Amino acid sequence: MTPSKPTPDRTGDPGTARPLRADARRNRERIIAEAEAVFAEKGPSASTEEVAARAGVAIGTVFKHFPTKQALLQAIMKGLLERLHEELSTLAADARPGEELFAFVTGVVEQAARKRTVVTLLAEIGVDLQVAGSLQLLRDGIETLLVRSQRAGTVREDVRLDEVLALLTGLCHGALHAGWDADLQRRTLAIVFEGLRGQPEGAARSRGSIR
Amino acid sequence: MTPSKPTPDRTGDPGTARPLRADARRNRERIIAEAEAVFAEKGPSASTEEVAARAGVAIGTVFKHFPTKQALLQAIMKGLLERLHEELSTLAADARPGEELFAFVTGVVEQAARKRTVVTLLAEIGVDLQVAGSLQLLRDGIETLLVRSQRAGTVREDVRLDEVLALLTGLCHGALHAGWDADLQRRTLAIVFEGLRGQPEGAARSRGSIR
Amino acid sequence: MTPSKPTPDRTGDPGTARPLRADARRNRERIIAEAEAVFAEKGPSASTEEVAARAGVAIGTVFKHFPTKQALLQAIMKGLLERLHEELSTLAADARPGEELFAFVTGVVEQAARKRTVVTLLAEIGVDLQVAGSLQLLRDGIETLLVRSQRAGTVREDVRLDEVLALLTGLCHGALHAGWDADLQRRTLAIVFEGLRGQPEGAARSRGSIR
Amino acid sequence: MTPSKPTPDRTGDPGTARPLRADARRNRERIIAEAEAVFAEKGPSASTEEVAARAGVAIGTVFKHFPTKQALLQAIMKGLLERLHEELSTLAADARPGEELFAFVTGVVEQAARKRTVVTLLAEIGVDLQVAGSLQLLRDGIETLLVRSQRAGTVREDVRLDEVLALLTGLCHGALHAGWDADLQRRTLAIVFEGLRGQPEGAARSRGSIR
DNA sequence: AATGAATGAGAATTCATTCAT
DNA sequence: AATGAATGAATTCTCATTCAT
Q1: Which of B7, B84, B79 lies closest to B36, judged by CA?
Q2: Using one digit for the tens of pLDDT, what is the confidence trace for B124-166?
Q3: What is the mean pLDDT of residues A60-75?
Q4: Distance, CA of A134 to C1' of E21, in Å
Q5: Which residue of C has its CA nearest to A1?
């Protein structure tokens, strides 16, 4: 009858509601941080209880902030997406012309080798998930890098965004699950970059060796 | 306690013990087959109970053959490895000279897009797991393909087995989790193969476009 | 421990303590009102949290006024009892002579078909509960109606208060849980009233049909 | 893929599947029996854990037999319905002509005073629930009694099944929740029966008092 | 060997209640 | 007085594993 407060949504997204009290925000962040760590280590089947314990809060607190395990997982993703997107902006400015895409991919794969979640995330690009908004941002960002690199002649013209995302996803999964070390990472990426690069006929070709 | 009962090994590997009765072997195979299907569909967290049901046996029977869920999972892997290895031998004989590695990778990735387990398996290559024996066989087989392709000048000299495995793993994970369709698979592999191929300066280079 | 803090009674009854501040009283009433609605809809297992939300106050406020869910439930009952009692007085004055009891029962059952709480309440009449005081008032009121109806010859002499209460309770439960529609309600009550009425030998008897 | 065994239904109804092993059936019955007792005492919000404890089995066993708490509740109901229906048949044969309906109602209300579940059940008559089948049987049985009593002239012609069920439901709720003692039960039923009986003009009418 | 019933340790989630702000 | 964050016990349900039949 009295609709006063709408049933709380099941996403755990504070959205634009009211700003959380300082202590609540601290806890929320603590929980996300630890959750990220826990799920990174043990995969998404790790128990919410453990997240709570590591964050130093009671189980109820976790569920107050994220009414569902799914919601917690999604919150983590959203955070990740945002961080990736920031990184994207920085790169667009800083990287050597034409090398932006490579720099970005390298960076992401490096992280993936440590964080299980990055991988799970990447797998969702191209798919849906309720995180749609930030997801599109990321796609857009990557596309910018791609186009820029192609303009600089560093990446073949016929490469499309889809393939780049596919490669990124695959490489991250690999880096994570197979635990590539820094060297293997570098060598593997080199091969892929070579494939993306296309052949400037002359110079680059004569290196003869993958560094 | 009962000294006459030999401690069952926890691997579920019948090894060289006594040859299973005919019906027992039939059951064992049926279980593995269905387990493969179930885990492929629902991931490794699918329930053993379901495997039993689909195989048409009682849960006890599954645990008789594989004293642990882990053991069942490992048995599946071993089977996979063996099949991959066979495929390898065939390819070594059948593929166009120099294209063996590509053919193999293509084949495996194709399967991965369907079968969750292939991927999980590949992630373990280079890592340990008790399946070491067959694993080495697979590595060896892939190495053969690699060398052969390099001799034919189709794959760059400086590419090493490790990178090939890394790429294979990554590509499979990607194909599986991101659900690549046939076209995306082809385009993505094309890029990677281009990277592996290196540029024999002339001919191959002039294609200009990824098909 | 802190000797200055008087042990709060667990009834939530402000009693004769200090008169609540105006806004506090407003809140108290708002809470009771919404609680009634919520429990009516979802039964007594509805969450206190929801009551708070609908009343537009924080959960703490609810527990400030009613230190226990039980206390809240009891407060609702007390309110109900009081309202019923008022209705009783009105009826005593307004109804056609001899029909007061029937009018009252009809009214209560009608409400019950909608409000879960009325029922729960009625079930407690004759039983205990800390609401004893108002409860007695209600019994008294109903007794007055009964006696009056008996004097008018509309209700048999040998019917006692206990049976009336029993019937009332039963009918309300029925009306509520089985969701009687208006027609079924009328027909069912007609039978019961017939039973209460007894047969003044002549006149009334000849109707032959329940309306 | 292999449909071998259909996903187990969520009703916990062994149906016509395979006959349970002797020990399993023993447990199943034990569980239902104790569940009936527990829910009778504490209402349907009593914990499944307690049922398990009282039945002397592990919690998993309860859920194996009844995959849902709902399923357990329904199984209890079905049992009750069957018992009621048997009772119905007996009565049809044994009761004094014309008194069958009264005898049945009396019997059911008597039980209700003890068993919470009977009440909950009755509330469902006329409503749905998946127990439809047995439910219809019960309705039919009661209708038979009604008709028979009407033929004997003991129950008014214009009384319909709906009202009988409504009264039965209401009386049971009352008997249960208000804890009527034997005497109150008798007196209350007497009033209702009087209402159902209608007035044989002469004899019965002159009793003047409800016994 | 096979069966399938029983076990019981989790896991996710809810909710009355407390208490610092 | 009010707020609303935190607590943690309790509840339903799942599943790997054991063991009597």
Answers
A1: B79
A2: 554 434 455 566 777 888 898 899 999 999 999 999 999 999 9
A3: 94
A4: 35
A5: C37
